[in-house]
Every structure is written in C-alpha cells, then in structure tokens.
Amino acid sequence: MRPRSSFQVSYSIRALLALVGAVPWLLVAFDSSLFHQFFNSFCHQLSERSLTIHGKQMAVCSRCAGIYAGIALGAITPPLGFIKRYGQVVIWMALTIVALDFAIQNLVLHSMNHAFRIITGAMAGWMVSAFLFSSLETPSKS
What pLDDT, in 10s, does the model give residues 8-64? Predict the structure, then answer.
C-alpha cells in the first residue's frame, strides 16, 4: 500500500475542519439539549448573545458561531501568500480586535451587536485556520 501524499492528508484535514466549523450552524435544525451541553464546555451560551434561527437558539454565542464559520472558511480557501509571510501578525491583530470588542462590550461602552461579533469571530477563526494550512502546505522538494 502506498503512503498517502501530503495533499491527501491536507485535503482530509481541510474537510474535517470545514465540517467542524459548520457544525454549530447545522445543528440549529435540531433542538437537542445534548448539543447545548456539549458546546457548554466551549461557550457561555448566554441567550442574549446567541443567535436565534427559526425560533431556536444556537448552541454557541454569535462570536463563537463566527469563529466556527471562520475556521470552516479558512479550511476551504486556498492558501494565500501573505498569510504565510505575515500570518502570526495578522492573527494577533484579529485576536486583538476580538479582545477589544469583548472588553468594550463588557464595559458597556457599546451595545451588543451580533453582526460585529460574528464578523470579528469569523476573521479570527479564518486567520488561524488559513495560517495553519499555509504553514502545513509547503511545496515538497522533488
């Protein structure tokens, strides 16, 4: 049996992360306390900070939903050159923006905004996921 190429392994990991990133969005169709209990380990799940879709609350808050969506996006987008060069800086910038939004929101300097929470979370999740794959996918020397 031939060993799997790094492309096949990378493709499998990408597919797995895309699925993991989509899970909280897909689970909205199911009204199960089991999913909410599972995600409770990762997210506060406050109802006022969580999206409600078709009358059902997501198992994660809007920021975590954005992070998961960003992870999925980073897994399915092709690697970009600037991410490999400046990825760590951009990741820190994205995480700083999320932390600032978190701090400002908790100090009640601006009201809670689902769209902003999703966008900042998605930006951070996408950068981390995209940087991971740009770091893993170095051209092999033949």
Answer: 777 888 899 999 899 888 888 776 777 878 888 888 888 888 888 888 888 899 999
d(CA 27, CA 115): 20
Decide if 1 is inside a domain. Answer: no
SS (H, E, C) the chain: CCCCCHHHHHHHHHHHHHHHHHHHHHHHHCCCHHHHHHHCCCCCCCHHHCCEECCEECCCCHHHHHHHHHHHHHHHCCCCHHHHHHHHHHHHHHHHHHHHHHHHHHCCCCCCCHHHHHHHHHHHHHHHHHHHHHHHCCCCCC
Kindly state whether residue 141 falls inside one of the protein's structural domains: no
Q: Identify the domain containing residue 78 by its residue range.
A: 6-136
Residue 32 placed within a domain:
yes
Q: How far is CA 91 from the centre of its chain?
A: 12
Q: How far apart are CA 82 and CA 95, in angstroms?
A: 18
Distance between CA 11 and CA 14 in Å, rounded?
A: 5
- Total domains present in the chain: 1
